[in-house]
Automatic annotation (TrEMBL):
SUPFAM superfamilies listed in its UniProt record: MFS general substrate transporter (SSF103473)
The protein's name: MFS transporter
One of the record's GO cellular component terms: membrane
Subcellular location: Membrane
A single GO molecular function term of this UniProt record: transmembrane transporter activity
Topological relation to the membrane, as annotated: Multi-pass membrane protein
Length: 493
């Protein structure tokens, strides 16, 4: 090891002004100048990562837990089909509003400040959901939860992206996003455990209550992270940006010993929401938002109502519910089936993590959309059969869909949305993309139970096959490659 300058930590004092990303991306090298593979992450960078991952976990937990809780909620408040759809869509509609309404505020008030605000907002509404006195209040509180989660969409992504090395960005953002799938699986497991230990109508309140303490821990911990030096420099806070980048890269032995940041492009400060639709950004806006919209048409509709669909096909289900025991039994069976399928979400995101640097986000998104279409087509074909064959095809189709969506569009749309915009509108652009996507999610969540009853599973699933194929075409037509590319260079494009 004598031939290695350990991280090149013996450099002379910095005299040349450099960009934020050049400090973050700087890697140690051998004495002859050959760079070592990778840049070691600091404690602060890991702290930012796992606190951002926690936000995605809570989103998956709450949205997918609603699918398990829905039969109990419907029974307690005596809900019809339309009300059922409103409850299913409430948190998704909140995400739509929060992503565009609050997510863009990180471009004005800072990444860290909104990162903290969103989690406390989530905590307040989570507590209120547990004590909802009526159907209308529950819908409102779930909407509030969604607003907080919507803010988290762009803010969590941006705060990770602007704090870590370029070559690791894709994998770390995807691994944080993967906690959404872990949250979805946890939501179904928690629902199952609560139902088996507390077999009564009010069990759904305890499902949501299980997240209160973990959310409080995460909210408080977010006070102890650094602000984005990219954002601070853009706002003219040069000395503060240099201080924050030093704290972000604090390591032993200390390097860099001094930080001197170069001035950013002055034009960036004049950017606003309308900048997303200017010629220089419109390609990024379309790529970030349209495929995500098409992907959410399938993912949220399938995800939220998977327990309902499975309950109609899994054996031992009570066809005509006569009492609370029958209702609980059906919900337990649905939770088991949903949990088995949700496992494939985690497998998919693990594969996305492993392959993103090898194949790039664009290829994985295109392949994923095509795979989703195949899975949905298999599920649609189940309507031609009965008994064991029908159940097998539904499971195979949904499992294929869940695997391919997290390998491709469900993961890659989130990743691309936070990478393709310049720093000045990165939060706004990612927020708009998430909000536009949730129009598809809200529409699907509200209409899915109605359409399921009116036109049947086959027509509904075949319609989603078409939207998935359109997603593949749009991704190919407007592709922007970001994998491993310096964040400042992407913004410059």
């Amino acid at each position: 090891m004598d031939d290695v300058v350990s991280g090149e930590f013996d450099h002379k004092t910095e005299t040349t002004a450099r960009s934020v990303q050049s400090y973050i991306d700087e890697a140690a090298h051998w004495r002859d100048g050959t760079p070592l593979v990778g840049t070691p992450m600091t404690r602060m960078q890991w702290r930012i990562w796992y606190l951002a991952a926690a936000g995605k976990f809570f989103e998956g937990l709450i949205v997918f837990m609603t699918g398990v809780a829905m039969p109990l909620i419907a029974q307690e408040f005596q809900m019809g089909k339309a009300q059922h759809g409103v409850i299913g869509a409430a948190s998704l509609f909140g995400i739509l509003i929060g992503a565009v309404g609050l997510g863009g505020l990180s471009d004005h008030f800072g990444r860290k400040r909104m990162f903290i605000v969103e989690m406390f907002l989530f905590l307040v509404f989570l507590c209120l959901v547990c004590f909802s006195p009526s159907y209308l209040w529950l819908a409102f509180f779930l909407f509030g939860l969604g607003v907080a989660l919507g803010c988290d969409y762009p803010t969590a992504h941006v705060i990770i992206s602007e704090s870590i090395p370029s070559r690791m960005r894709g994998q770390l953002v995807l691994s944080a996003f993967g906690f959404q799938a872990l949250g979805a699986l946890t939501g179904t497991v928690v629902g199952y455990l609560v139902l088996t230990n507390l077999p009564e109508i009010s069990a759904w309140r305890w499902m949501y209550a299980s997240a209160i303490v973990p959310a409080l821990v995460v909210a408080v911990a977010r006070f102890w992270i650094t602000e984005s030096a990219h954002w601070l420099l853009l706002k003219g806070e040069n000395s503060e940006a240099e201080e924050q980048i030093s704290l972000l890269l604090q390591r032993e032995p200390a390097y860099p010993k001094t930080v001197r940041l170069a001035e950013p492009n002055g034009e960036a400060n004049r950017a606003n929401f309308l900048s997303l639709f200017e010629r220089k950004n419109i390609r990024a806006t379309i790529l970030a938002s349209v495929p995500w919209f098409l992907q959410d048409l399938g993912t949220y509709g399938i995800g939220i109502f998977t327990p309902t669909i499975l309950a109609a096909t899994i054996g031992h289900k009570t066809e005509h519910v006569r009492n609370i025991a029958d209702l609980i039994n059906n919900d337990v069976l649905a939770a088991k089936g949903s949990g088995l399928i949700d496992v494939l979400l985690i497998v998919g995101i693990v594969c996305a993590f492993l392959f993103v640097n090898k194949f790039g986000s664009i290829k994985l998104q295109i392949w994923g959309f095509v795979g989703c279409a195949v899975g949905l087509a298999i599920a649609a074909s189940s309507t031609f059969f009965h008994g064991g064959t029908e159940i097998a095809l539904i499971f195979l189709g949904f499992m294929t869909f869940n695997f391919m969506t997290n390998l491709g569009p469900n993961a890659q749309t989130y990743l691309l949305a936070g990478e393709v915009f310049p720093t000045s509108v990165r939060g706004t652009g990612a927020g708009f993309a998430a909000s536009f996507a949730k129009i598809g999610a809200v529409t699907t969540a509200f209409l899915f139970p109605i359409l399921l009853a009116d036109i049947g599973e086959r027509a509904l699933l075949l319609g989603l096959v078409v939207t998935s194929l359109i997603g593949a075409v749009v991704t190919w037509a407007f592709q922007i490659h970001t994998t491993g590319v310096n964040l400042e260079e992407i913004g410059g494009e």
